[in-house]
Amino acid sequence: MAENKLHPTVSKFKEFVSSHPHIIQEVRDGRATWQELYEDWYLLGEEDPRWTTQKEAIHSDKPAAENVDTGAGALVNQFVTLAKKMDPAQLQSHLYNLSQTLGTIQGLINQFRSAPPPQQPRPEIAPPPQPFPFRKD
């Protein structure tokens, strides 16, 4: 029932993905998003070499058992992979902005710590007037 409400091109893309399971793995691995893949499929078509080269690249890699990492080695591999994908100029820009923000926050905290709240001297409090004046007759 939900498929009837989908746009026809989306239904065709779903069929295309089901016939190319390497696309699903690409999304799971974080190499692409569904939106990117759909746009590529829509613009390039099903016969584009992008779809076959990726499929061959996936199959030519190590066997699936060797791709599975466990423990600290997997974490190190993830960091190395992320480091390869990073743009050094963009990373430096983000770190500079973070440094500036932390400096500003530290400055505000130091301002509030070093300046104690001003104490106003208390005036001498006079006794309140009597509400019922008593007079002697």
From TrEMBL:
- At the top level, the lineage of the source is Bacteria
Location of region: Disordered: 113-137
* Listed Pro residues bias regions: 115-137
Q: Which Pfam families match?
A: YlbD_coat
Q: What is this protein called?
A: Cytosolic protein
Question: Organism source for this protein?
Answer: Neobacillus notoginsengisoli
Q: What is the lineage of its organism?
A: Bacteria, Bacillati, Bacillota, Bacilli, Bacillales
